[in-house]
Amino acid sequence: MPNASTAMAPQAVQSMAQPKVEFQRLGKRFHRGSEAVTVMEGLDLTIREGEFVCVVGPSGCGKSTLLNMSAGLMRASAGKVLYDGAPVPEPNTKVGYITQKDNLMPWRTVKANIELPLQIRGAAKAEREQRVKEMIQLVGLAGFEKALPSELSGGMRKRVTLARTLVYQPEVIFADEPFGALDAQLRAIMQQELLRIWSASKSTVVFITHDISEAVALGDRVVVLSARPSRVKVDVPIDLPRPRDLSKLRFQKRFNELNEYLWSVLAEDLNAGDEV
Amino acid sequence: MKKVADMIDVQAVKAPTHPVTATSGESEETVWLDTPRSGRDRWLHIGAIQFGRLGMVAVLLAVWQVASGRWVDEFWISKPSAIWDVLWGWISRGEILTHLEATLTEMALGLFFGALGGVVFGFVLGRVKWLAELIDPLVTAVYSLPKIALAPLFILWFGVDLLSKVVLTAVVCFFLVFYNTYAGVRAVDDDLVDVVRVMGGQRSDLLLKVVLPSSATWIYTGLRLAVPYALIGAVVGEIVASNKGLGYLLAHAAGTFNTSATFAALFILMIIATFLNFLVDWSEKITSRRQ
Ligand SMILES: Nc1ncnc2c1ncn2[C@@H]1O[C@H](COP(=O)(O)OP(=O)(O)OP(=O)(O)O)[C@@H](O)[C@H]1O
Ligand SMILES: [Mg+2]
């Protein structure tokens, strides 16, 4: 464990890194007949290469919409989304996207679902077998290789989705509440694994969650979005040392301070309510 | 307004004064009330059912045989022995083969081309939204027409031989397969398509790895429906105008007031339909096992 003095050190390396995903004056509206619902307006945010950015915000504020635009599946209504400094391609095939709903192919087994991106990318059979096997071990689904998604629990399906994204090692991972459906112990294990993979692979992660302590525990930064129309409310650097032992974090004063602060920021919008 | 807390009888929800412990059920052995049926029982059951069925048919035939000419004029209902004579005549003279061959060929060709067209057309319209929107009224109009009513037109166009029946059967099958394929392709979850696009899937990946497997059960349903309708198409075509086939046999028999031959032709049709049903069920079993 690093000591307290390194904990306070500024994370200079991160701020020097290249911007990976940029949102500039981003706006999004949905049209229902002649009516337009503005979900997002004037959102500015830069995610740099190698960063682990957590995004929290009230339900329905547009977090999933933000990721859909980043993955090039949805167009912005105003402003820009840049990837590597250029307008985001449609779709953005350099990223991995763990969607909020587990979009598994219902006719494919666990193994075949995880194998799908490798097949699409034309990986050799032997390599596919090897990588899929590793991933199944990693997410703790050994013994369920031949099961269909309909035979799995919600948390297991979520883990398959995670494995399916990690298996092709995308440079950026967008994860939309990936651990929401997991029980506390499993969630802790998966969080630690994700941190390990992230630091080993030097990938960039944008992680959406509604659990503030999860955001603080994992992120280099926690971005809080406001209620609709959403923009960045605060962008808090998390100056907890790495590598982090997630099981011990809650004994750190700084961790609890950050948690408390973020709670108070988010609470303002939660009270304002989603009852629009 | 009344508060919820006021409505609860506080006396009734007092905490138990003695600690409650779960009574141990381990000491007693569980008595299962649902015993599995033994193999012998099951065979006896199946045997009894089969025996009962045979008996029922035998009684029916016997009543028919006795009633004919005694209570009902034989002209209207013929009788089993007479029907059998006709059937045996057709079989022993080999006549039946020509007719069977004609009907089955029309069915098979019509089913094949109709289903192929239906799948392809259903896929294209399912994926190309503007085209679907454009020709939707036309398709609905033709679909709502009883396809069998086209038989006279096709005979006019394609003659009394094989071709007119194949076309009629194909049209009937086409619409069944087309509509199911179209619905299946439209029902494909767009999110699944998006997931594969982000993974780097090309157009062919989207079709082969998402759209096709996800609409497969729909297409299969269409094909299953099309099989019995192919028989209907072929036979109706033959009834309207032809010189061979089971429909011809039937129409000819009825046209010459030969009740026995009419029943004999119907009997053959029944056998074929049952056999087709059996084939469909069997193929369903095979495919569902493979899934
Ligand atoms: N395809 C769509 N058509 C119309 N409205 C949409 C569409 N997608 C999202 N919205 C609206 O945009 C808003 C933001 O949705 P989004 O799913 O991004 O919220 P979220 O922040 O991810 O919420 P949650 O935390 O509950 O997942 C919602 O009010 C939703 O009704
Ligand atoms: Mg969401």
UniProtKB/TrEMBL annotation, chain A:
MF term (GO), any: ATP binding
Keyword terms, alphabetized: ATP-binding, Nucleotide-binding, Transport
Q: Does the keyword Transport apply?
A: yes
The segment(s) forming the ABC transporter domain are 21-252
Among Pfam families, the record links this protein to: ABC_tran
SMART domains xrefs: AAA (SM00382)
Q: What is this protein called?
A: ABC transporter ATP-binding protein
Q: Which organism is it from?
A: Intrasporangium chromatireducens Q5-1
Classification from the root reads: Bacteria, Bacillati, Actinomycetota, Actinomycetes, Micrococcales
